[in-house]
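Listing S7. Sequence submitted for prediction.
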Amino acid sequence: MQTKRIKCPKCGVVLDVKNSKNESVKLITCPSCHTSLQVKFPPQQAPMEAQTFYAGPTSSSSSVDGETQLAGDFTGATKLYNPKAIHRLKPKLLFGGVSYSLEEGRNIIGRKCSSSEASVQIDTGDRYMSRQHCDITVTSLPDGSMKAVLSNYQNKNQTTIDGQLLDEGDQVRLTDGNSITMGHTTVTFKLS
């Protein structure tokens, strides 16, 4: 069953319209001003599944406490999605023709070495790149996309993203094509 939140153009009351019969257009009467309204519903192609998630803080213009919103993101709400329609992009780092996959969760990035405890070890002889240089946290979002956040990993060697120095405590959301320089080694972040 589809539900659509609309606002009456005459009196401004907000209504939740349920489409239990999977109709493309539903006729309703506003309970406040008795205006006849047509509500259009998109065709439902596949069964939907519910997934509850918390997307983090949002701007003050959006609703709070998991309310359904007229537009915008769904902070703390239950959102319907079609799992077959999701195309997951896999995050990775590229260096010297080699692809280093990033897994969901925390990925410690460092220089390849027998004593390195990094989960992603870049094969470079760069001594300015720490054995545990930075971390990239990968999170799946409800729409199927992936979010990757870069932060420094308590080292004293520099990390830059697209030429901007990453200070201690900084967290930067990565986008496709970002250049990350650790010491003298530059890798490219890719989503594919």
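Caption to Listing S7: primary sequence and predicted structure tokens for the chain studied. Residues 1-43 form one domain. The radius of gyration is 23 Å.
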